[in-house]
Amino acid sequence: MRLCAWYLYGEKHRGYALNPVANFHLQNGSVLWRINWMGDTSPRGIGASCGMMVNYRYFLEETASNSALYLGSKQVRASQQVLALVAQFQQNSKL
């Protein structure tokens, strides 16, 4: 889960999220909200994402500012759960 959080939050292509689904939602003003362990246990889900599923949350009053922040400054808005996983990854990573 820590690696997944880092992949979605920290891995970039030209400054934007490397994952195309994450990039789509973040461009539209969402918040990287929750990572669900074994949220998709279908054969496709296991093969594509090791069974993990991600929730993006849209706070309607914040979508415009979140989108502008992401597109302008390339900053990802994320929940405390995701940020905690990112911090754990960074502490334990040898990358």
Automatic annotation (TrEMBL):
Name of the molecule in the record = DCMC protein
Q: Which GO terms describe its cellular component?
A: mitochondrial matrix; peroxisomal matrix
Q: Which Pfam families match?
A: MCD
Q: Which GO terms describe its molecular function?
A: malonyl-CoA decarboxylase activity
Gene3D superfamilies listed in its UniProt record: Malonyl-CoA decarboxylase, catalytic domain (3.40.630.150)
Report the source organism. Answer: Chloropsis hardwickii
Q: Where is the Malonyl-CoA decarboxylase C-terminal domain?
A: 1-58
| Coiled-coil region list | none
The gene from which this protein is expressed is: Mlycd
Give the domain of life. Answer: Eukaryota
Q: Which GO terms describe its biological process?
A: acetyl-CoA biosynthetic process; fatty acid biosynthetic process; malonyl-CoA catabolic process
